[in-house]
Amino acid sequence: MQPDTRCLHAGDTVDPATGAVMPPIVTSVTYAQESVGEHRGWVYSRANNPTRHALERVVADLEGGERALAFASGMAATATALELLDSLSHVIAPNDGYGGTYRLMSEVRPRSAGLVFSFVDCSDPGAVRAAIRPDTRMLWLETPTNPLLRIQDLAACAAIAREHGILTVVDNTFATPLYQRPIEHGCDIVMHSATKYLGGHSDVLGGFLVARTAELGDRLQKLRSMAGGVASPFDSYLLLRGIKTLAVRMERHSANALAVAGFLAAHPRVVRVHYPGLPDHPQHALARRQMQGYGGMVAFEIRGGAAEAKAFLAHLRIFTLAESLGGVESLAGYPATMSHSAMTPEARRAAGINENLVRLSVGIEAASDLIDDLRQALG
Ligand SMILES: *Cc1c(COP(=O)(O)O)cnc(C)c1O
Description:
Elements: H1 3-9, H2 50-63, E1 67-71, H3 74-82, E2 90-94, H4 99-112, E3 116-120, H5 125-131, E4 136-142, H6 154-163, E5 167-171, H7 176-179, E6 189-193, E7 207-211, H8 214-227, H9 233-244, H10 246-265, E8 270-274, H11 284-290, E9 297-302, H12 306-315, E10 320-321, E11 331-333, H13 345-351, E12 357-361, H14 367-378
Parallel strand pairs: 2-3, 2-4, 4-5, 5-6, 10-11
Antiparallel strand pairs: 1-7, 6-7, 8-9, 9-12, 11-12
The chain binds pyridoxal-5'-phosphate.
Residues 73-75, 98, 100-101, 142, 146, 171, 173-174, 193, 195-196, 205, 207 line the site of pyridoxal-5'-phosphate (PLP).
């Protein structure tokens, strides 16, 4: 089956007890046991829940992993993935990744777990190789990167990590499993903020870890059960519902983003556009090879600086100035003081996140309305 079909039919979620086409929302926290230790596999909802399990089967199928685990948020998933590591382990992570991931890795885990992080430009496999130390245990990737839409070479990075016995984790939030399947490129764990495209409607927080092997899946499931950051039954239902329309939404997001990127690239007030679907993106060839589509995120640099970027944002009418991304409605953000405010100005500069940078989450409205809005706001 094609991925588009699997969004609807993966996991065979028809309820065997009733034939319900959408799985029921099972709110019970506990389950009756026939005798001590004898039960039907459901014991306590922090460990396992039928609605969550139905969702997890769909996502495991879409990513091509043995096991998927649903979390209350993307950050809960990230926090649990880091629990795989012993204290004093070294982790390599991108210097232009999601701001919340950077905050957890730079402010919390060095203090609470003794983890040591190197933030490098992971779009350069040579830089990844150079950052490896004897105590390196995890390579954290995120591609396309946030907010600059750089592309990391999953197969090359996973091969380097494997040579050294290092686990590769990929934040696949921007691409979704429809446009990029890291496990097929040799990576070990896929992470998602399901809050974004998987949910798709800006009305549910969620996260995933998908494990290449059952053994890794078991270890992660135990850690999740102990740390407790599970997706609720109702949120699991909303995510199942969102994934049904993922393929049609992604098609529209991508087509609109390409149109918006093309418009911006030709506009005299725009200095630079970052979108992997544009032929002049420095890694367009790699994106074509590694991805099946380019997604709905576009960043661009406006002529001028912070003042010009903020004036542009203030004039938008259809794009809403807001955090987050991946919902059906178009959003705009200012990375320097919004999504990437946790970075120091020096770290932002080193990563190329300039004061004139604007990030767009291009929604599924009519492309002509979105372009009209951008044109009037550029003035
Ligand atoms: C939003 C986001 C996260 C964090 O997910 P939450 O669901 O907000 O906890 C992680 N990575 C990326 C790329 C994101 O966009």
